[in-house]
Amino acid sequence: MYQATITERESGQRFDKYLQRILPNAGSGFLHKMLRKKNITLNDRKADGSEKTAVGDCVKIFFAQETLDKFMGKVSGETVYRQAYGMLTDIRIIFENDHILIADKPAGVLSQKAEKTDVSLNEWLIGYLLEKGSLSEADLSFYKPSVCNRLDRNTSGMVLCAKTLQGAQFLSTLLKDRILHKYYQLYVKGHIEGEHLIKGYLVKDEKRNKVVIKPVSASDSLKHDISTVQNVGKRDRTNFEKSAYIQTKYKPLKIEADKTLLDVELITGKPHQIRAHLASIGHPLLGDYKYGDRTWNEKYRKQFGVKSQLLHAYKVVFPTLDAPFADLSGRTFVCEVPEIFGCVSNFI
Fold first, then answer.
1. Which of 27, 49, 179, 234 is most exposed, with the fewest beta carbons within 10 Å of its own?
2. What is the pLDDT of residues 147-169, one digit of tens each?
C-alpha cells in the first residue's frame, strides 16, 4: 500500500491530475476504475477524481508494491538538473519567495529547451531548487517548477518562474488578465519621437518560425473577414484565422545618430511580437537578422560584435495583491541592461 499526505506544493489540483502525476505510467481509464473500486481513496473515502486536493488530505493506494513500482516509474533527471545549475552560472536571481522566482536570463540561454539535449532556464531552476534543498527528487513526481513567460534565446532579462503549483496559477492569472506590466529596452533603426501605441494581428509561420504582422483595418472585424486583408492568399487563410490581436506601446528614451533607444511596454505577449511589430512600421531592432536590416546590423556586428537583437526585459510591475502574495503587491523589479547597450551608444 502507498500512503501520502497532501502538502501545500500539491494542493489545489484535481485529484485525478494528482494521481496521474504520481502514477505517470497508469492510464486515466485505469485510475478511474481503481477509484470506483476504492483501490484508491481520499481521506479514507471513495473519490471520483474531480475533488480538489487540500493540505492535509490523506491519499491511500492499495496496490501491490510491484504494481506501484510499475506505474510510478522512476523519477529521473536529478543529475541533469544539477548539471544545468552548475553550467548556467550567469543567471541572477532578482526576487524569490515560497511560490515564485524572478530570474535575470542572459542572452544566449533558452527559457525552455527545444531539443532533448538542450539545457535551459527550466533545468537551471529545478537544479537550483534541488541544490538549495527546497525541492526533493520525489517532489518532481507531483509538480515540476517551470518558467511562466518565455523569452527568445537571444532576448535577455527578467523571466517569471513558478516554484509551486500555486505560484504557477498565480502568474498565469496575472499574465492572462494583463495586469502584470512588462517593459523592455531596445535599440531600433531611425528616429522616433513621442509615445505611441500600435496595434495589429500576428500570424505565425510554424515552418519558418517567423511571424507576419497584419495591420488593423478601419473595422475591427478584420479578424473575422479575412477576405478583406491584402496579401493573404488561400494558403495563408487558415493561419490568419488563428492570428492573435497584439498591442505594443513604446516611447523614446534617447535619440542617437542612426537609432533610438526605446522603452516598450508589452500590452499583449506573443512570440516575436516586439521584433516583428516594430519592423513592420519601419523601425527594426538593432542586431535582429530575422526581421531587421542586414546591412545596418553588419555595421554594428563588425564594430561591436552584435550578433543578435538588443532586446532586454528590464522591468516588471505587479498590481495590488492580497495574501499569500502580499509581498509582491505594487512592487517594481528592475534589472540593468547588458553592457553591450552602452557600447553601441552614440556610434555613428
1. 234
2. 999 999 999 999 999 999 999 99
